[in-house]
Amino acid sequence: MQHNSHEALCAKRVENAKRSFTTRRIPPANMTHLRTHQWAPKPGDLLLARVEAIGHHTRIELPEGRRAHMFPGDEIIVVCGSRYAPDQFEAVLDSTTWPTDLVAAGGVASNNQSKHSSAKTPTRIAPLGAVCNAKGEPLNVAHFALKPISERLPVSTILVAGTNMNAGKTSSAAAIVRGLVKKGHRVGAAKITGTGAGPDPWLLSDSGAHVVLDFTDAGYVSTYNVPLDELEALAHNLINHLAFAGCDVAVLEVADGLLQPETAALLSSSSFRLRISAALFTAYDAMGAVTGVEWLRGKAYRLIGVGGRLSASSLASKEAETATGLPVYTLAELSDGETPDLALGNIEALSRAS
């Protein structure tokens, strides 16, 4: 059966394809047709592709979190988008070119521009077409996003930022969640920026968060190259949804480092800063901690401490504490509800009026 630029996509083929984490909000029953030509890829569009050659990513993360091995010839359903990851790839989606690289295990199809020297070449995919609905319209994650909440709902918030990828942001955020839960708080967590993947949300959920959301729930597979006004709306909506779910504290993480363009723009936004009650900065070393703390203080954030990979070294921690005047917390201390300076047992004292 074929009509116009799309053909039927049988349910069995959808069932047999390895669907990625980034597609999790879209019911498979909606994936009924395939557009095989006359398609200009947009960020968030679903793509059916065939695995051609295994590269950096050998497994794909499924909606439920399991990472399934991929083999040449497998069909996968992923989402088109860009990626900014200094430790792996910079990849940019081009509407005039169908994506041929899998640049994130969570299921992001793009066109690679550069990579870290330690990363292998991306896993190569052969795009077969846009996954569409019964009308032949490409399905997009934005169509299944959380509804906007325009009212600004009050909730205390702790922001976790860092120097770069793998500075210890998510592990610190998860530890804070655990500490707050121990003190009886109803805690929500959200990752505001980044590239769609499941490990961070799963860790936050496993740490006891009542509700966990990220930018994919707001309709974005990646926040790279997203304009500031959209980032602000995205952030406010996620915070409002955590408040609407009954959370009295929200732990928020921004991806990458302070120099990443979208992270820098969002953290420089006065409307976003006014939603933040307190902030923790994570770093690899003391110099990174000093630079980041000064940067955030310059934006008028209320810093309650430093954490991350730095905290594994007592000497580096002493250097950072001397230079910044802030305590350095280990993960054990962050997850201890009695930590006084972080006020895990009295979060209201950290909050400004929301």
Task: Describe what you observe in this structure.
The protein is an alpha/beta fold and 354 residues long. It folds into two domains: 2-144, no CATH class; 156-350, 3-Layer(aba) Sandwich (Rossmann fold), CATH 3.40.50. It has nine helices and 20 strands. The protein has helices spanning 11-16, 169-182, 199-206, 228-244, 261-267, 270-273, 286-298, 314-324, 331-334, and strands at residues 2-3, 6-8, 18-19, 33-35, 46-53, 59-61, 67-69, 75-80, 83-84, 89-91, 101-104, 108-110, 112-115, 123-132, 156-162, 187-191, 211-214, 249-253, 278-282, 303-307. The strands form four sheets. It has a six-stranded parallel β-sheet with strand order 17-16-18-15-19-20, with helices on both faces. Strands 5-8-12-11-14 form a five-stranded mixed β-barrel. Strands 9-10-13 form a three-stranded antiparallel β-sheet, with no helix packed on it. Helix 2 packs parallel to helix 3. The protein starts with a strand and ends in a 20-residue tail after the last helix. 52% of the residues are buried.
